[in-house]
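Re: that chain you flagged

S.,

Sorry for the slow reply, it's been a week of failed gels. I finally had a moment to sit down with the sequence you sent. For the record, here it is as I used it:
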Amino acid sequence: MPEIIDLSQEIYTGMPVFKGLPEVNISMHASHEQWAGIETDSPTPVVNKLELGEHTGTHVDAISHMAAKHKEQSIDTMSLSTFYTEGICLDFSHKNLRELIEPVEMQEACEKANAQIKKGDTVLIHTDHYRKHYNNQDWRNDPGISDASARWLGNLEIAAFGVETMSPGVSGISNKAVHITCGEMGFTHYENMINLDALIGRGRFRFIGLPLKIRGGTGSPVRAVAIFED
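Prediction finished late last night. Pasting the structure tokens below so you have them in one place:
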């Protein structure tokens, strides 16, 4: 049997979201008892109502999110092969808050892992920020890649990269530039991933992070997984 590792945060009311994005609220829309005409003080949900933004929890950005000129490349237009790839995970757990990851460090991480980034890969970046800082005062002070690293990855023609943090770059330093570079070079990224520590040192795996088919969507929550075959 293949081993499937869940890389996705749970979605719940009041969970952390990026500054200025819609808050998450999950409420009961209808109960079993309501549909059956039964009065009760302890209803059980038959349908819940979800209120959330496209960029909630573990999600992938559409190319249209990167800049207005890419507006036609919404999430529903992107090739499914973008979200079904081979993957590797590189270890940057030594990085401190708000530190940049530069291209030379990307190369060193590949050498340390004896890993080669191939065309069409998804490259996951383990900083251990989720386990150290999720939902505490430093959750927003994450390390991230530099614009130079984004261009380095783009030149390798990857499908996407993924981070454990709320943004791929460091907010106020590289984050906006990284988004712009992704749009210009035609690749994307996942944010708010978990369990990347379980991938370190294990080599290549199958990566799946399929988005919802949202018409005109600028991104979508995903149930991202890494699969190791026997």
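What I noticed first: The chain has a mean pLDDT of 97.

Talk soon,
D.
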